[in-house]
Structure formats: C-alpha cells, structure tokens
Design brief:
The chain is mainly α and about 140 residues long. It has one domain. It contains 3 helices and no strands. Helix 2 (about 50-95) runs antiparallel to helix 3. It is rod-shaped. The mean pLDDT is about 85.
C-alpha cells in the first residue's frame, strides 16, 4: 500500500527534478547569450575563406535558435507545473464533493511540441559548439 510518506517523497523528488532541469536550461541559455555577444563583438572584418564564414554563421545561428527553443523548453516546465496544479485542484474538489477518496497520483506529460522544442534546443547548441570548434581550427 502506498503511504502518504511515499507521496511526499515523490513530490519532493519531482520538485527537485523540475528545479534542476530549469536551472540547467537557463544556465545553457545564459552561456549561449554571452557567447553570441562575445563572438559578434570580437568578429573583425571579413572571413578569409567561405568555410570560415559558413562555420561562423552556423555557430551564431545555432546559438540563436538554441536560445529561442530553450526559452520554449523553460515555458514547458511552467506549463507542466500548471497542468499538475489544475489536476490536483480538480481532485481536491472531487474529494470535497465525496466523488473521490484520495489525492491524485497522476503525471503530467509534456506536449509533443515542447518535446520537439527541447530536442531542437539541444541539437542547435550541439551544432553551434561543433561549428565553433571547426571555425577555431580554420581560423587558427
């Protein structure tokens, strides 16, 4: 039988997971935003070769796309928490009316669009980092 202590443990673990994930995405976005600013401000003149230019554009674009879709991923966490809160409130109303006898043990799944945004975010940041490495090698 699942006890109230088990529910509390799951709630605490879920809260820690949301907090850590939110902090991780936010950290990536702050680094990416700083990197974009530095790269754009330190870019001097025209690239010597087409490959240098291409890798630089891919890096800047990847960082920008990663930041945009990272913001969507952060909103997905807020959206999931809001859905969970609504489910919890509905169950409390049902308990109050006598239609239910225990609190919900439901999970809230992310919308498929938020999952796609998360994938694009991580893919864009990865592509940008690979492109920056190639740019550095070509420039050096």
């Amino acid at each position: 039988m699942v006890t109230e202590k088990d529910y509390k443990g799951l709630v605490e673990l879920s809260a820690k997971r949301y907090t850590k994930y939110y902090d991780f995405i936010r950290h990536l976005m702050l680094i990416a935003a700083g990197l974009v600013g530095i790269l754009v401000s330190l870019k001097s003149g025209k690239s010597e070769t087409g490959y240098e230019y291409l890798t630089f554009v891919i890096a800047i674009s990847g960082l920008g796309i990663g930041i945009m879709f990272g913001s969507i991923s952060l909103y997905a966490e807020i959206n999931s928490l809001d859905k969970g809160r609504k489910l919890y409130a509905e169950r409390l109303i049902e308990i109050n009316k006598g239609k239910a006898y225990q609190l919900p043990f439901d999970t809230v799944d992310k919308n498929i669009l938020f999952k796609i945004a998360e994938y694009i975010c991580f893919s864009s940041f990865s592509l940008a980092m690979i492109s920056l490495i190639i740019y550095g090698v070509l420039k050096g």
